[in-house]
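Help needed: design a sequence for this.
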């Protein structure tokens, strides 16, 4: 899928620039942020508050440190990203990168096709949206299920392991063998702070 760039380059990039500030559009979404060393400029699709581009620029010059450009489909799902870096910032030798995301008819992410093979991912789902298989470092599925669910739609196996999966009477996952999960009386997930 790489190489099929389908970006709508018509996005808004209008804002007032002031030092050490954050400037929102009239809609309240962040347009521009200035800090001591650099500026961040966001561009949004016309008629939708969906991020279409992000630029990180050196404040004292005209150098762009990084530019991200996104393609977003009519459902609001990102289907592509172009990344251009000013230099090899992390020592990986990468100064640009493209990613394409593909979805099935139900809107589930089924593939992340990346220029760097180690970052590629693919997923398979059953008819009701349970994840059945996940692969990393490729977009080719093996055909072997990594997940299994019981008759009440609770995962009973994740990547070959059946240990640690526990559910409450409402079907909420309460433990995964590593972390305990809690829900309030309204069945809202609660984060333990302590």
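Sure. Designed sequence:
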């Amino acid at each position: 899928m790489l190489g099929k760039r389908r970006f709508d380059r018509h996005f808004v990039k209008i804002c007032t620039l002031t030092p050490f500030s954050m400037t929102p559009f009239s809609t309240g979404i962040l347009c521009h942020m200035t800090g001591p060393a650099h500026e961040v400029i966001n561009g949004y699709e016309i008629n939708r508050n969906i991020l279409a581009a992000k630029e990180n620029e050196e404040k004292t010059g005209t150098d762009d440190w990084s530019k991200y450009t996104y393609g977003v489909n009519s459902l609001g799902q990102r289907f592509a990203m172009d990344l251009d870096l000013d230099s090899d910032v992390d020592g990986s030798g990468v100064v640009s990168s493209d990613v394409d995301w593909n979805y099935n008819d139900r809107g589930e992410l089924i593939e992340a096709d990346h220029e760097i093979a180690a970052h590629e991912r693919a997923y398979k789902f059953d008819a009701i949206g349970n994840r059945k298989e996940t692969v990393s470092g490729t977009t080719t599925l093996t055909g072997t299920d990594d997940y299994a669910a019981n008759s009440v739609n609770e995962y009973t196996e994740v990547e070959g392991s059946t240990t640690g999966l526990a559910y409450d009477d409402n079907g909420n996952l309460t433990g995964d063998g590593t972390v305990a999960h809690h829900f309030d009386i309204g069945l809202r997930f609660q984060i333990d702070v302590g």
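Residues 105 and 127 are 11 Å apart (CA to CA).
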